[in-house]
Specification:
It catalyses: nicotinate beta-D-ribonucleotide + CO2 + diphosphate = quinolinate + 5-phospho-alpha-D-ribose 1-diphosphate + 2 H(+). By secondary structure, the protein is of the alpha/beta class. The chain is about 40% helix and about 20% strand.
């Protein structure tokens, strides 16, 4: 530990008021998300139907046959994606009516009807798997996130996602994180400054790494000169993996310092150091964040905990279709 770092890690305690920093933009259903979803659905339709049709359905189901079914969870979880159902069905150009019985973010109980679909039976059968795949994935992420959020109840820290998302699915997955009670980290590289070790290695010229504190000051200066060109919030964040690096960057005044793969003792020391040197800086813990470790991490007094596991390790929630007997129109 640096010589002039706080000697008493318990100074970090959670009795102190957490520093306030701007948040990255929250992902909400908007035109961009709709475009992402529609592209994914078009790809899914192409995967299922190619240039042909659903031969089994065409062979066995009459053209005018109508049907009704409900989407039902087989396991407890958290709803995400219910409000996206109209966009999914629209891409099938299907003769299907829908009714959502639950809102995104609400708990799911096995056996409850969460969406009812009714209309042309051929359209229902052809669109069934695509609708379920999307909802199973998003509900799984929301459920995983809710578990992490509940594991740190009583602490002021918040749970954040990362950019470790499925290509093409980022906004959808980040929306699901929010429905589970988590917070969104930056959506893309355009969404703020996050100075990492590779930037430092390459930013100082050939063979000369850039000093972390200088990198922060450069980013802050860049931001101030282009404030009207940057989308809000324009956060300056830097990643460190040692306490001496943290000590060096705190006086430079970044909005957030991401402390990567710190032990619990190092996190406590980091919080005490932050409280002494620059209390306005938020600390974000990342690395080795699991459901069995996140509570202890939150107890160190950090403000933010980010984990790629919310998205890349979330299991799909088991959803199924319960059918009513088809009716002739």
């Amino acid at each position: 530990m640096p010589d002039d770092a706080p000697s008493n890690p318990t100074d970090a305690g959670e009795g102190k008021k957490p520093p306030v920093a701007p948040e990255y933009a929250a992902v909400v259903p908007d035109e961009t998300m709709e475009n992402d979803l529609r592209q994914l659905v078009r790809l899914a339709i192409a995967e299922d139907l190619g240039r042909s049709v659903d031969w089994t359905t065409v062979c066995l189901i009459g053209e005018e046959t109508c049907g009704q079914c409900s989407i039902v969870p087989r396991a407890p979880g958290v709803a995400a994606g219910m409000m996206l159902v109209p966009w999914i069905l629209d891409e099938f150009d299907a003769d299907i009516d829908h009714e959502c019985h639950i809102k995104d973010g609400q708990p799911l109980v096995p056996g409850q009807k969460i969406v009812t679909l009714s209309g042309n039976a051929r359209d229902l059968l052809t669109s069934e798997r695509v609708v379920l795949n999307i909802l199973c994935k998003l509900c799984g992420i929301a459920t995983k996130t809710r578990e992490f959020v509940q594991a740190i109840e009583g602490h002021h820290a918040k749970v954040y996602d990362t950019r470790k998302t499925t290509p093409g699915w980022r906004r959808l997955e980040k929306y699901a994180v929010r429905m589970g009670g988590g917070q969104n980290h930056r959506t893309g590289l355009f969404d703020g400054f996050l100075i990492k070790d590779n930037h430092l290695a390459l930013g100082g010229g050939p063979g000369t790494p850039l000093d972390p504190a200088d990198a922060v000051r450069k980013a802050l200066q860049w931001r101030s000169g282009r404030i009207n060109q940057l989308p809000a919030p324009d956060i300056v964040e830097i990643e460190v993996d040692r306490l001496d690096q943290l000590q060096a960057v705190l006086p430079a005044g970044p909005d957030i310092v991401l402390v990567d793969n710190f032990t619990l003792d190092q996190l406590r020391q980091a919080v005490a150091m932050r409280n002494q040197l620059n209390p306005s800086v938020q600390l974000e813990a990342s690395g080795n964040v699991r459901i069995d470790t996140i509570g202890e991490i939150a107890a160190t007094g950090v403000d933010r905990i980010s984990s790629g596991a919310l998205t890349h390790r979330a299991m799909w929630l088991d959803l199924g279709l319960d059918w009513l007997p088809p009716q002739a129109s």
